[in-house]
Amino acid sequence: MSFSVSVDGACSEKKIHYLYNVCALSAQERVSLFAGDQIEFASSVSRLAHCNPFLPERIECERAALGSEFVDDGPVWYARDDREIHPNVERIGRRIEPLIQSARAALVESERAGVEQLRLYRGVVLYWLYDRYQERMLRLFAAAADPTRRVPFYRDFAADCRRYLEPAAEGASGFDAAHLFACFFQVRRAFDLVFRHILGSSMPIARLRASVWQSIFTRDIERYRRSLFDRMGDVTTLVTGPTGTGKELVARAVGLARFIPFDPQREAFSEDSEASFFALNLSALSPTLIESELFGHRRGAFTGAVADRVGWLEACPALGTVFLDEIGEVDPAIQVKLLRVLQTRVFQPLGDTTDRTFEGKIIAATNRDPAREMRGGRMREDLYYRLCSDLITTPTLAEQVRGAPEELGHLVGSLVRRMVGEEDAAALTTEVMQWIGEALGPDYSWPGNVRELEQCVRNVMIRGAYHPQRAPSDPAGELAEQVAAGSLTADGLLRRYVTLAYAREGSYQGAARRLQLDRRTVKAKIDPELLSSLRDG
Description:
The protein is α/β, with parallel strands linked by helices and 537 residues long. 55% of the residues lie in helices and 7% in strands. The protein has 4 domains: 13-216, no CATH class; 247-393, Rossmann fold (3-Layer(aba) Sandwich), CATH 3.40.50; 397-463; 475-536. The protein contains 25 helices and 11 strands. The longest helix is centred in the first third of the chain and has 28 residues, at 115-142.
């Protein structure tokens, strides 16, 4: 949980007078809400209320709060099912409530706490409030019930806000229980979505989760709650990474975790987050169909348009998200139209001259290198610079298991549990890992990434074996990548290029003529291993 009490835009004269009086009090006159040995705990818990839960700072805050009671669970926080209570969270919860009760009693009795003591108190209360209601919020989200119906426990939440936050808000800041409730519900949803969609417990996956969290809440979650919560739809997110690394899952985690306002009069949320995510795979459609799906069309706009159609940009609500997968493969003419949407939020359906306004958020993804696509003229630079305000890169499976071979077993176990449930998970996981060890070996590169691993699990489950199909190699493309990466020596570059030319010409003389080299030089520079692989391919 990561929220603090909101600060009103303008201070009233009464508040300014109160702050002046507080600052004028001597140290002896101010009451201390926390004893000396409680201040470090309160400070650590307050920092927990503001940190990214997937960064190492989360672990350090817990360690500082608990001291000798801290349970060291490794460098990645909560590398398990997040619905299981972590022992550190449980121990902080046991210590926090009596601390709040005593601090509130002191505050109500004296009303003379210092500014720093009030800040710590509010941070501790907010952490406690979130922890107190998060399970009910998770049930509300996980039950797939309509969240736009009345939320029965909101009144209890509002009462707790009045009881514990109101004494600390006078003269310093106000609070809005309904807005705080909406923020807490967003945090709970986001936390669950990140774990549901992003599998793994490796450090690259922890960094990916932290990056997704920042895409939702930014790096300053207090500023987000104050002023950015209803403006993130203006920020376009671009997800890059190889095929099979879960780019759409990342997009769903970001898109489905958007802020939804809470109406305190109806005691209900304004929208259902699950019904506002629209995914479109651009590489699977022709340019005309892409335009029709995105912008909509009017009857007669093209052959086969027998009726009006509302496109995703028009159907998407203000709190919704349109996900454009494989945007790197879009026709340049459509790129221009997308650029207009990103710049002006305005578009026109095919066959219509009336402007429509897009009010939602756009998330795009590509498995191509944007820099290379721009150099090759396949992606407009102005489009890229409209997409890149928020970048997320998904790691390959090889990066996840490098240096942590046990991670492959964790991933297989997660996939298996989703497929067969808990009862048969252990046995099938053992079968899959045994097959991988014997047939593929520990150095298998998993070119299809997690998507390939999932199919490996299914193959072993159904047929007891998995035999990957090797895609035909592209030696020229591989050479270009190695040159771009600067991974070849001058002699290595010459040997590979000479070998490619010889394989294509079929003779030393033909290769020498093409390369303008001596025939004997060509013969000396042939790489036998590369030549063999080229002939086998």
